[in-house]
Write a structure and sequence with these properties.
- The protein is mainly alpha-helical.
- The chain folds into two domains: 1-148, no CATH class; 177-248, no CATH class.
- 56% of the residues lie in helices and 0% in strands.
- The protein is globular.
- It starts with 13 loop residues before the first helix and ends with a helix.
- The relative contact order is 0.09.
């Protein structure tokens, strides 16, 4: 897919630590309640001392407030999810990046890039529970979809992980959820098509390709990939109308 409080004490300058401590106090006081929901599969509770918060900026508090998405995400990423951590080069607060990715996913359970990084670390270390991680990779995905079941990017990242793990039925279940929520979003249909293509489910890839192009997608990559394996078919005359109607 083409997607793209304990941490404050970790290696921050004294001025940054003081500012973060004040912000943390305000958030603890004003945050109405962290989701106490238990996650299926023995994956813990979403409740913690700080957060959880939604990773998506369009679902977050406006930028003109001190609790803005940018402010909170910036604190977490500067202290934990640095470029070196994301690229699995080294940890920020420990020798392994697993601890920092794990913390990031505690505060922002649906942090898309952190989920990708945790899955990549699992692959790199050849274990479902990377060094420093609090939970298994599967648990981090379960926590993310429990926290924000309407986040289609999470469902699609999870589907890729499941497909790579040969858990095809579960991958298709996640893709089905994303498809049911895609509505008239051409990029979501395009990304679904790309995942189905990688899974060699060419019929489903074609369905979502037709929907994406009927909704105005200008990117030809999915069509060209289907052509490369002889699976592209031009849509029928009513495809645009039917595609729009079915995607709602």
């Amino acid at each position: 897919m083409r997607f793209s409080a304990s941490f404050i004490h970790h290696r921050l300058s004294s001025s940054t630590q003081a500012m973060s401590t004040i912000l943390l106090g305000l958030l603890t006081f004003f945050h109405p309640c962290a989701n106490a929901q238990d996650v299926p599969g023995g994956c813990g509770s979403l409740k913690q001392s700080w957060g959880p918060f939604d990773y998506r900026p369009d679902r977050y508090i406006p930028e003109n407030t001190y609790r803005s998405h940018r402010a909170l995400l910036g604190i977490v990423e500067n202290a934990h999810f640095t470029p070196d951590v994301e690229m699995l080069i080294r940890g920020k607060t420990s020798t392994t990046p697993g601890n920092d990715i794990s913390y990031t996913l505690g505060v922002f359970p649906n942090h898309h890039r952190a989920l990708l990084a945790m899955a990549a670390l699992s692959d790199k270390e050849k274990t479902d529970k990377p060094d420093g991680a609090r939970f298994s990779v599967d648990c981090y995905f379960r926590r993310a979809v429990t926290w924000r079941p309407d986040d289609n990017i999470v469902h699609m990242i999870y589907a890729r992980y499941l497909a790579k793990s040969k858990r095809i039925d579960e991958a298709e279940q996640q893709l089905g959820i994303a498809a049911s929520q895609a509505k008239d979003n051409p990029m979501t249909h395009n990304n679904l098509g790309l995942i189905y293509f990688d899974m060699k489910s060419y019929g489903q890839a074609l369905v979502h390709a037709h929907k994406a192009y009927a909704l105005g997608l200008g990117m030809p990559n999915l069509r060209e990939q289907l052509k490369s394996v002889g699976k592209w078919e031009e849509p029928g005359p009513q495809a645009a109308v039917e595609s729009t109607g079915q995607s709602k």
